Amino acid sequence: MLPLKQFVDFIEQNTLFTRHSKILAAVSGGIDSVLMTHLLKAAGFNFGIAHCNFQLRGPEALRDQEFCNNLANQLCVPFHTINFDTGNYAAENKISIQMAARELRYQWFDTVCQQTDYQVIALAHHQNDTIETILLNLTRGTGIAGLHGILPQNGTLVRPLLFLNRDEIAGIVAANKLGYVEDSSNASAKYARNKIRLEVIPKLKELNPSLEKTFENNLKHFRDLEILLENQVHQLQQTMLKTDADSRYLLIEDVKQLNPARLLLFKLLQEYGFNETTIDDVLSALDKHPGRVFESAGYLLVLDRDRLVLQKKTDVEVQPVLISEQDHELHYGNFKLNVLHDDSPLIIKDNPLAVSVDSALLVFPLQMRPWEEGDYFYPLGMKGSKKLSDFFINQKIALHQKNEVPLLINGNGDVIWVGGYRPDERYKVSDNTKKVTIFELYKLK
What we know:
- By secondary structure, the protein is of the alpha+beta class.
- It is 38% helix and 21% strand.
- The chain is elongated.
């Protein structure tokens, strides 16, 4: 007799789908997926069968495909199937056969769902699959999320057999005389998961015959701990991760108060691609000189004077641009620069993105570029020169923002204007000025 009540109860308790849902059942023809299809049919759910032929096992793969077609006909449900050139896909994408099969399978499932209005994809994972996944994750290295195993629901993927273990499934299939096919590759210890299934778990069951039950109880604790951690991290994100202009940052003093610092900082920055090794480097650098930059695939984390600044990487490096006497408009990085020559000695006030200079002092071509170590200028209104590095500190310009400040450079090498901040005293408009050149910056994004 099929365990229909437990099956339906598990679906309802975990809100996997409803009587009105249209379900795509992923069926290999093996014992687990065959039981799932019979349970779906007996419980009266609306479903179709999807089968992938990865063309890796020759006649055996064709046998499985034909079996699933016959099963769909027997149960009077729609049948969807596809043949993949898995080996070629793996070679082209430089990934393993297993990873190739996984990518092809789930991409096709999504396509079938979009074309035929299936709402969920039912997979026949059971409790032993969860144990294998946890052991694999521990072997490869994992955070707490890797310990929750296979979840009953992950987006559109649902697993309605997680209330059963492998032995229970075998007993139910035998008692109900349900036909299925055997995948001969399951008996090979070539793959990591098979090695755990065939060699590791039997040894663990010698130590604990109730291994599945023990893991089921542990999973509840792991999932509760994960929820607790995620709630804590969410609160920290609200209070610690601050926004300033076009970047986000964490105050170093706040980071030092985290406990446990490594775990919580990792979780705070995980979505930005930073791994645990980088987090170790960040924590060890907190009391050292500012300027250190840590990278993930898409972000920079800059150790500034009192903060860790998070900045999205830009694809384009800002290149210096030359300005001729005939130029009236040009682009530099995220700025547009307008140039106007005027016979009246106009002085720009109260607009840090514009400056007027004495035209007679200009040596063309001018240049707009980022700052360089050793740059200095004579700030307007001050006596004497000042290094740009010291000026940036006084202006409280963050380390990661210094390279974004446009400098207007004269043909003789002088800094004429620190764009957006201060012009040079030597190039100001005076009573002797006959003609001015006005430079105005516009931020594009």
